[in-house]
UniProtKB/TrEMBL annotation:
InterPro entries xrefs: WASH-7_C (IPR028283), WASH7 (IPR027307)
Matches recorded under Pfam families: WASH-7_C
One GO-annotated biological process of the protein: endosome organization
Start and end residues of each WASH complex subunit 7 C-terminal domain: 1-83
Protein name, entry field: Wash complex subunit 7
Record organism: Triatoma infestans
One cellular-component annotation, GO: endosome
Lineage summary: Eukaryota, Metazoa, Ecdysozoa, Arthropoda, Hexapoda
Length: 83
């Protein structure tokens, strides 16, 4: 979901509707990062107690999602330059 159309469209709508400040006040990306951090910590603690491939795959998938959200965040910030 880091296609350029989504961040540009969201940024455009936020600008037209004058909701940029309200969107920023949600601190949505901060809460997403906090959730990923807590899930990763939980999986790491489970990983210490057991050497399970399923757990390792879950950690890898979580890191992939975390990277996708970082790219989405950067794309949204970059798209604000246009408007």
């Amino acid at each position: 979901f880091t296609d350029d159309g989504l961040p540009i469209g969201v940024t455009y709508l936020l600008k037209v509707l004058k909701l940029e400040a309200e969107f920023d006040s949600l601190r949505w990306f901060d809460s997403v990062n906090k959730k990923f951090f807590e899930q990763e910590r939980s999986l790491m603690q489970t990983n210490v107690s057991s050497d399970d491939n399923t757990n390792k795959l879950a950690i890898r998938r979580l890191k992939m999602y975390q990277k996708e959200f970082e790219l989405l965040y950067c794309s949204l910030i970059s798209a604000r330059v246009f408007f």
